[in-house]
Write a structure and sequence with these properties.
single chain, 5-stranded mixed β-sheet, 3-stranded antiparallel β-sheet, 1 helix
Length: 168
């Protein structure tokens, strides 16, 4: 009888654990607020406001460094791991220099845990991603210009290839 109860309890635990598994969050492509044509070999920038961790220094001093993230190429090969802070007192996300192109970034969100964000890096401009719950985006923009998390919070500018400024 004890074996039956143990088997039943283990089966229920496995069923609950698989039922609670969450579907990975993959967002639309985020790009800079404006994009110009860029020649091959150019460089752009990425700034990722990932979730933060709490670090206590001393009795009453707290710092909130951003969590690290990984940048992959479109084929899924790791390009770079970014710690996203210099030390445990650094609350500013890293400014990463990358060759122009499309990347997949896996970073932590305040609410959704690990999130995959496709990003476009364009020459000379910064692509910014906000996975913290504090950014609300510009109030005057049409909704279709922003990428949003499943709960509706904006994370960055939606990339639109048709709006890339032509070579001058």
């Amino acid at each position: 009888m004890k074996t039956f109860h143990l088997t039943l309890a283990l089966g229920a635990a496995v069923w609950l654990a698989t039922g609670c598994a969450t579907k990975p969050v993959v967002l639309d492509t985020v790009g800079p607020s404006h994009v110009r044509w860029s020649p091959p070999g150019s460089r752009g920038y990425l700034k990722m406001y990932s979730a933060t961790e709490t670090d206590q220094i001393g009795d009453n001093t707290y710092y909130y460094p951003h969590t690290g993230y990984r940048i992959f190429d479109p084929a899924g090969k790791l390009v770079k791991f970014v710690p996203n802070h210099i030390g445990n007192m650094d609350e500013t996300p890293a400014w990463v220099v990358l060759p122009t192109g499309k990347y997949l970034v896996k970073a932590q969100s305040d609410v959704y845990g690990w999130v995959t964000v496709p990003v476009i890096i364009a020459a000379g401009v910064t692509t910014t991603v906000h996975l913290q719950s504090t950014w609300s985006g510009p109030a005057t923009l049409p909704d279709h210009t922003l990428v949003r998390l499943p709960d509706g919070r904006p994370v960055g500018w939606k990339y639109d290839a048709s709006k890339v400024t032509a070579r001058q």
